[in-house]
Automatic annotation (TrEMBL):
Species in which this protein is naturally found: gut metagenome
Keywords: Membrane, Transmembrane, Transmembrane helix
UniProt protein name: ABC transporter permease
Taxonomic lineage: unclassified sequences, metagenomes, organismal metagenomes
Membrane-crossing residue ranges in chain numbering: 27-55, 67-86
Length: 110
């Protein structure tokens, strides 16, 4: 029977795997905090490129992280849905701009 391991250690020969666990945890926390605090799309784009570059350098495959990415995607969709339901004007406040394609009901627009 195949062993299911969602968050197990996968040994590879990359420099990322040679870093200590503390170093990787500190970097992860710093990037996470920067992403949560920054509302600047340019900063988030730089963090995305940095993260994808590090993923490529780590020599992991999509198959290795499929479940984690799927869970992240589910929570991303839920988060965006609830932000839209409870605060549909949040994007307007954040970017100080509005482009209305059509109005749904009341203050809900697309």
């Amino acid at each position: 029977m195949a062993q299911f391991s969602m968050l197990s250690y996968l040994p590879r020969g990359s420099f990322i795997h040679k870093l200590t666990g503390t170093t990787k945890l500190c970097f992860f926390l710093m990037v996470s905090i920067a992403a949560m605090v920054s509302y600047d799309t340019r900063v988030l784009a730089v963090l995305l490129v940095l993260s994808l570059s590090l993923f490529k350098m780590s020599r992991l495959t999509f198959k290795d992280v499929k479940w984690v990415l799927w869970l992240a995607f589910v929570f991303l969709v839920l988060n965006n849905l609830f932000i839209y339901i409870f605060s549909p004007e949040y994007g307007v406040e954040l970017y100080e701009s509005r482009t209305v394609l059509f109005t749904l009901v009341g203050r809900y627009t697309i």
